[in-house]
Amino acid sequence: MSTLAVQDHAVSHDHDHEHHHHETFLTKYVFSQDHKMIGKQFLITGITMAVIAMLLSILFRIQLAYPDKSFPLLTTLLGRFAPNGRLDPEFYLSLVTIHGTIMVFFVLTAGLSGTFSNLLIPLQVGARDMASPFVNMLSYWFFFIASIIMLSSFFIQKGPAGAGWTIYPPLSALPKAMKGSELGMTLWLISMVLFVASSLMGGINYVSTVLNMRTKGMDLWKMPLTVWAFFLTAILGILSFPVLVAGVVLLIFDRSFGTSFYLSDIVLNGKLLPYSGGSPILFQHLFWFLGHPEVYIVIMPAMGISSEVISVNSRKPIFGYHAMVYSLIGISTLSFIVWGHHMFVTGMNPFLGGVFMITTLIIAVPSAVKTFNWLATIWRGNIRFTPAMLFAIGLVSFFISGGVTGIFLGNAALDIPLHDTYFVVAHFHLVMGSAAIFGMLAGVYHWFPKLFAGRLMDEKLGYLHFWATFVCAYLVFFPMHFMGLDGVPRRYYATTEFPAFSQWLSVNTFITWAAIVAALAQVAFLYNFFHSIFFGKKATQNPWNANTLEWTAPIEHIHGNWPGEIPTVYRWPYDYSKPGAEEDFIPQTVPLSQTMSSNQEHDFEDNPAGLDQFNAWVKVNRPNEEVK
Amino acid sequence: MFLLMGTGSLFAETPAAGAPAADSGSEWLGVGYYVLLFLLVCVIVAVIGKILKIYELTLKMQGKKGINWNNFIGYVCVVFLVAGLYGAYWSFTVQGQQILPEPASEHGVKIDQMFWTTTAITTFVFIITQILLFGFLFKYRGSEKRKAYYYPHNNTIEKIWTIVPAIVLTVLVVFGFFIWRQITNTTEVKGDINIDVTAHQFAWELRYPGNDGKLGTTDYQTYYSQSNNLAVSSKDKSSYDDLRADTLVLPVGKSIRLNIHAQDVIHSVFMPHFRLQMNAVPGLPTFFKFTPTITTADMRNRLDDPSFNYLLYCNKICGGGHYNMQKVVMVVTPAEYRVWLSHQKPYVNDLIRKEWKLADAGNKVGAAENKIALNN
Fold it and tell me: Comparing C-alpha atoms, which of A332, A134, A114 is closest to residue A202?
């Protein structure tokens, strides 16, 4: 049935194609409804936001490394936010807040899912475009407006929101509590509501495209892991983001209309405020009900991309394809019942804390399975070190290093001394920050020819970019574990008020310089990226000898992706180095009947007629095996 | 590109700023110096890139194969693995010395045991998996002569590496769960010393019970005023002998119950030496029960640092002064504690008495109590 629908679509589309072919600049590059262009829009906006958020992090790293020094240039650049050459403590908190918000939502959610779900879902499942191209376009523009509003808060009198990216009330609810809770917080909340709207429009599109618009033969178990990951990610987003909106709307009510959802018994500046009966913990529940699935929304697409890139470049099928899918499903399901591990020491009922601790450590099992499967995939591979492959490997390495510390933090008893210390900062920057950004970069390097009409990025610069970033990321985050174990709290403007922490000052300076080198290494990427768009080496249609469907589409972007009929799919996407095959890859579009010499019994699991034919062929051609 | 240049110039100021009263000329010299340095690096990278390109071209012209980058990266992986493992070892041995101050509470010892068990297991996993990862990368680096081994799945292996982590995690969960329940499943018992810790931007207020050993109840909606800023109830008899203190003094070896309140925004009572943390939430009193085991004097001896003090500090973002919201914690012998307590000022001071319309403000506490009893 779905096949019919696809064919219909194809026909009507061709019709469409012939008759009005007039694309203006505005409809092609700005208000485009083509999924490939929207993907590019998401990517370039995401990269821009990433660079901004990275610069913010360098600003506050300088403060941490040189807490007693004055940098007149900061005053020149930031004006009242850095009087006398030193960051204002409240502006420091704003920097931390906006860095986190941009990185988590605007880069690793929209920039990552937005780019690659848009680019790859239609191309890899064999669809002409998204289910609703117009909604898809709206999704980008809502994201764009949300980005503008978020950044605009740097240009208002009191500065951006400053209550941390988790914006816990009452701090975020009481404009008088800090400068960052005034207009900046209002803008943050408006921006996030628009962002969630964008994310929902995108997510609904991704899910409906995957479910309804797969090409002939593309059953769910023939989808590449990228598509599985994007699909499950979109479901997570659809189920969890609305809860954030609920929390945010109630917060807007508390801030602006005098309600008391989150507020009770507040005394500010010596005055008792008329709030009563609310609970700040309620907000934390609502926030983390999104917030925890959110970290999987961030990491799962990166995992999907890495699985694909590792398999292609190891010239080996991904080990345990089914286990990979089931572990993604397991992670997705469990991610909804672990949010309480962010709240062990908030005064939540300790018994509930115990329950959340059990669910949290269970989620480590599918994560471990994924790691072992990646290791098994590269085992006895024939590894081709493209920059994309290196970044995918980087994800695995970070995911291990950051993942093992999750076992500490998920343990409620250990969380008591570790909560909100630099140990947490180190943990999540490795496991979801660095890992996800590496997954995203792997995707950019790997699918660059698909993004920018057959151009390739420079490999050598890619190597430089990878090694510099990879090493520096470890240099930045590894020492932070030890600071956290000594009890250094996060979100401190300076640790100089505590003599015991003076032993970490040299470490802080070291971390800052490692961060600066890492930031500079991104110049190699940015140059490579923008230069290669226009002058990159021309690629062949299938430069990586990959099996998936997107490499059967022509190099030049056409609206509708494939001229003529959409290709039919006959096999799973991971037939690499199959014994008996002539080449070390067999694209999904090659029917089993053309590869008799490499077919295996396993290929005919749901196909008894095919199995009979296969056995007959084996009897004739491989008499020796028949004896076995 | 321009933005990143900006970064370059931002940190470029470090040395200039170090110089006292640097005139603007030397400041810009500092920025320019670092920008130029970065440009130089860029040029060097570009030159090396060009040299490599030319070298590969000449090789090709001579009919030889170009540089085998696959091999090269394979070796870099090994170098990274060795250097990385050494770096981790260095961090563990050097920075590892600076972590986890000696636990000064009963449950802290248990948490540390749990911590070291988890560390042993995770470090083992971390090292093995990283060795396998980068080892495989090197060993199976690509070559045209080889073909990868087609190995799509193996259910037995997959079952093993699902079940083994599951078992290990179950063990950790069970131990962690019991420790967590021991620490948190603490109802108040007789003999507990109740201390009220109230947080507001950016300080802590302390209230100790008087002779009756009981803290008066609080109610912000009814009793809050400028002088009665902890909103202690005038109807509760036990309020009248409560005491205010500046330092959190704790008797060693006694069970302490911190009753934690916040007035404005969320704060967090964090005392890392005692492995203690609990958020202070407005409108939702929380508590943490623990037993300190090492006196401040004893700890000073052990650390050979006469200026050492236990500290309580805020660990939940609460505004501009968050980074300096601390309180000294003194653990003393029970005898010292009794002496210290007898010197603390009463919470119900003259101002509050006036507010509560206690006619004979300044008279004995006993008299006031009688009065209240009559009012009831």
Answer: A114
